[in-house]
């Protein structure tokens, strides 16, 4: 039998939701674990060996109840889940915004607009008075935020080197080769150039042709 574990969950979002009643169609839905929705809470990935996945499933079947999993945003029934998976599962409430060298000069270009351009508070993790490790922009209703992070903190290399390293990835041409030719893929594996001094106004960004070579 199915045991609803909804009452065990604390509503992390600060607002209530109504669970949708089950229909004949939703009763026939595959389990959430089978559809891959909650597998990540168990540390399972597409590369996890089948035998390991089966062992995890078997261990949970022996000691965990089956519950109805509902979306905390819509109340819609998503499928059957283990009680442990259902309780541990959390919807992500932030959108990651990744910049390379954000902690340096790049964040100075837009931090004021992020703070004042639209309603919502800003949380800053400073390194110094002028350098930020990360900062978060909360939306006015607090249900969603944008988390700005510096990729240089965990990939300490130049964009040029990082782009060149893509050539060593065996899946690069397999994934992109269906839609892009070799010349286009080569562009993906090297740092581009930008005419910083030429771009002196927003109007120049609307131009449909490249500026002359001496502007680069």
TrEMBL record:
<keyword id="KW-0239">DNA-directed DNA polymerase</keyword>
<keyword id="KW-0238">DNA-binding</keyword>
<keyword id="KW-0548">Nucleotidyltransferase</keyword>
<dbReference type="GO" id="GO:0006260">
    <property type="term" value="P:DNA replication"/>
</dbReference>
<dbReference type="GO" id="GO:0003677">
    <property type="term" value="F:DNA binding"/>
</dbReference>
<dbReference type="GO" id="GO:0003887">
    <property type="term" value="F:DNA-directed DNA polymerase activity"/>
</dbReference>
<dbReference type="GO" id="GO:0000166">
    <property type="term" value="F:nucleotide binding"/>
</dbReference>
<dbReference type="InterPro" id="IPR004868">
    <property type="entry name" value="DNA-dir_DNA_pol_B_mt/vir"/>
</dbReference>
<keyword id="KW-0808">Transferase</keyword>
<comment type="similarity">
    <text>Belongs to the DNA polymerase type-B family.</text>
</comment>
<dbReference type="InterPro" id="IPR012337">
    <property type="entry name" value="RNaseH-like_sf"/>
</dbReference>
<dbReference type="Pfam" id="PF03175">
    <property type="entry name" value="DNA_pol_B_2"/>
</dbReference>
<dbReference type="InterPro" id="IPR044925">
    <property type="entry name" value="His-Me_finger_sf"/>
</dbReference>
<feature type="domain" description="DNA-directed DNA polymerase family B mitochondria/virus">
    <location>
        <begin position="96"/>
        <end position="206"/>
    </location>
</feature>
<protein>
    <recommendedName>
        <fullName>DNA-directed DNA polymerase</fullName>
        <ecNumber>2.7.7.7</ecNumber>
    </recommendedName>
</protein>
<keyword id="KW-0235">DNA replication</keyword>
<dbReference type="InterPro" id="IPR036397">
    <property type="entry name" value="RNaseH_sf"/>
</dbReference>
